[in-house]
Amino acid sequence: MPSDFIPLSEPRVAGREWEYVKECLDTGWVSSVGSFVDRFEREVAARVDAAHAVACASGTAALHMALHALGIGPGDEVVVPAITFIASANSVRYVGAYPVFVDTEPRYLQLDLGSVESFLVEGCERRESGLHNRATGRRVRAIMPVHVLGHPSDMAAITEIAGRHGLDVVEDATEALGSTLRGRPVGAMGRVGCFSFNGNKILTTGSGGMVVTNDAPLAARIRHLTTQAKRDAVEFVHDEVGWNYRLSNVSAAIGVAQLEMLDDAIARKREIARRYAEGLHDLDGLGLPIVAPWASSNRWLYAVRTRGADSRELMKRLRGVGIESRPIWQPLHRSPAHVDAFAWRVTQADEIHRELLCLPSSSGLNEQDQARVIAAVRAVIRA
Ligand SMILES: *Cc1c(COP(=O)(O)O)cnc(C)c1O
Asked: Under the phi-then-psi rule, with left for phi > 0, alpha for psi from -120 to 50, and beta for the rest, what region is 335?
């Protein structure tokens, strides 16, 4: 990699990570039990106003456990936005259920609530056993809003819709640690929510995740499931088939240090977003992201829209000058991995997919490098 290459999103290790990891190594507490795991869980829970938090090996594992603990399984369906990282939908398949892909709205790139409502009203029918998808016959059990790129989905509206139809809400907050909705942190606004601490997220533990909830029995069940459903640690009695999904103490140590720097990371991301807006707002050919008046975003990734043009051209030109950028994920109703899933009138996702491009957004991105990105984007869009 040339030294002047600007990556899309790099982790920033600038706090007490070394010190805390050394403490794990010095004391021998390196595995899935240890004081940093407990502390990380307590501190994340406090940060997002959740009563309970259970650390997991990844965000995907967290989603899997949340769905499983709610009893969602074969014959069931979960509403998932067409535009999200594939892990949201994969976790639904892990429990034997199917995702139903619903459209993404182009304003904030979140689950289109009009489409959710029309699916639940027109696409479903109420039977004795619950709400069923007319097309597949499967029972719809939950809505999984995803706070895409860190911008919150409107949880008040989603909870209201879910409540009216008797559905659970599983919040995929993996990209949105630190984002708020009408002043309240996202994550524990639905029945259960999940965070990811993968290397590209705003807080990283290398790999890791967390389930958060205000439901004590649900939290206890998830903790049990992530530790091989072990009932008796001495006699090794397991009361069902569980998983080895716990986070290691070493990873949690990194997480505790990263959490101390979270406000700093968010402030940096917001400053990056401000500078992009300032440097690009006058370009007619480019659409810039906006934040809803009722939301505050952690600005995890900054994505622009090449209005009416394919964003891949801009991506290639940026790559030519050593700048990494990336389109948004393939809409999941197009994914070969999910051909068996049902999609409800998805009409906006393809255009978003064609036009959206994520620009370098590392919290460590310095002003000089960002000026280079802005100048390069300006040159391409103007040409
Ligand atoms: C990162 C991410 C996940 C999965 O998290 P991992 O820790 O990588 O398993 C799930 N959903 C979305 C939307 C994500 O961005």
From this structure: beta
pLDDT tens-digit series, residues 58-117? 999 999 999 999 999 999 999 999 999 999 999 999 999 999 999 999 999 999 999 999
Rounded to the nearest integer, the mean pLDDT of the chain is 96
Taking the C-alpha atoms of residue 197 and residue 204, their distance in angstroms, rounded to an integer, is 4
Structure confidence at residue 351 (pLDDT): 97
Read off the pLDDT band of 34 (50, 70, 90): confident
Q: Please give the C-alpha separations between residue 244 and each of 41, 121, 161, 200, 233, in angstroms, as whole numbers.
A: 17, 39, 35, 23, 14
Please tell me the pTM assigned to this model.
Answer: 0.97
Helices of type H across 7-126 = 17-27, 35-47, 59-69, 86-94, 113-122
E strand or H helix that includes residue 168? strand 168-172
pLDDT for position 2 = 58
pLDDT band at 1 (very low <50, low <70, confident <90, very high): low
9 CB under 6 A from ligand 1? Answer: no
Question: Mutate which of 196, 204, 326 to test ligand 1's pocket (most atoms within 8 Å of Cβ)?
Answer: 196
pLDDT for the residue 29: 82
Separation of 354 CA from ligand 1 center, angstroms?
Answer: 22
- The CA-atom distances, in angstroms, between 38 and each of 43, 88, 229, 259 are 9, 26, 19, 14
Distances (CA, A) of 209 to 13, 55, 223, 248, 292: 18, 6, 13, 11, 27
At residue 90, what is the residue type? Answer: N
Element (H, E) at 311: helix 311-320
Asked if residue 198 has its Cβ within 6 Å of ligand 1, the reply is: yes
- The verdict on the CB of residue 41 being under 6 Å from ligand 1 is no
Say which DSSP state 333 is in.
G
